[in-house]
Structures are given as C-alpha cells and as structure tokens.
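Long-time lurker, first post. I've been practising inverse folding by hand and with some scripts of my own, and I keep getting stuck on stretches where the structure tokens seem ambiguous. Below is the full token string for one chain I'm working on. Before anyone asks, I'm not after the true native sequence, just a reasonable design that respects the backbone. If someone could post their per-position residues I'd love to compare against what I wrote down in my notebook.
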C-alpha cells in the first residue's frame, strides 16, 4: 500500500512542476491589455486552415494568429521569450511555413505545436492569449 502511495507521488511530481511553470508563462512578457475582435468571414475569410496572420499593433510586440481549424484559432504574442526585455518580435521564417524566428537569438517557434520553441536557446513558448468564437466573431483577450 505504501509503495503505491510512493509511486503515485513520484508520478505526480513532474506534473506539479509543469503546472507551476505554466502559471509563470504569462508573466514572461510585460502585461498589455488585449481585447479586440475580428469577423471570421469578412476579416479572416482569406485565412486557410494552418495559416497565420500578424496584427502588429496588438499585444506587446504584435500578435500572430494561427488558424488550427475552421473555428479554432490561437493568438500568440510575437515577443521572443528568451530575453523579453530586448523587445524583439519574432518574424515568419522565410523557408518553413508556420515557424516564427527571433531575429536576435535565432530561436524558432512552431505555431502548430503551441508555439513551443523547436530550436535555439529559448525555453518557453510564445505567450498565448485567449480566443473564443461567438457567432461570426472571434474575440481575443488576456
Ligand atoms: S529576443 Fe533577444 S534573444 Fe530573442
């Protein structure tokens, strides 16, 4: 019985660390109020599934929107998470589709994988904002 308890605690330990890191991610970059909406058909009708669109005047260093499926969108701040104080915005890679690269440190982030870094020194994904679809409207908020 005691062995099962130890095993349970051992298996839960990594999950506890992962969730505590998770809550810090939003504080990696300075807080900026984000609250804007887009018409899915009029403003995003040209966005195919798997494509991205950049909104340079939203978020801290601009927001890149990724369309996962018809009604599922992810909105990421473009600020590189390695040294956010550099105020460096990631830009789309010229070769690989859906990959965004920090021009300063070269870290690359794969948007289809939750904007996790897939190369370079950065260890945290791009900060993600909330998205929700209500009728024709996509709402993006903190
Ligand atoms: S932002 Fe300075 S290292 Fe990527």
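-- Answer (accepted) --
I ran through it position by position. Result:
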């Amino acid at each position: 019985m005691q062995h099962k308890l130890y095993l349970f605690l051992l298996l839960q330990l990594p999950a506890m660390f992962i969730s505590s890191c998770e809550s810090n991610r939003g504080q990696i970059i300075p807080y900026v109020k984000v609250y804007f909406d887009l018409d899915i058909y009029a403003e995003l009708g040209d966005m195919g599934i798997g494509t991205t669109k950049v909104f340079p005047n939203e978020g801290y260093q601009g927001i890149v929107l990724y369309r996962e499926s018809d009604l599922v969108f992810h909105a990421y701040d473009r600020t590189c998470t390695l040294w956010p104080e550099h105020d460096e915005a990631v830009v789309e890679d010229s070769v690989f589709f859906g990959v965004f690269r920090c021009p300063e440190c070269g870290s690359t982030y794969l948007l289809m994988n939750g904007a996790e870094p897939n190369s370079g020194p950065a260890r945290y994904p791009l900060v993600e904002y909330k998205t929700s679809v209500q009728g024709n409207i996509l709402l993006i908020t903190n």
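A couple of notes from the structure itself: The pocket of FE2/S2 (inorganic) cluster is lined by residues 80, 82-83, 86, 88, 102, 104-105, 107 (CB under 6 Å). Helices lie at 2-24. Happy to go over any region you disagree with.
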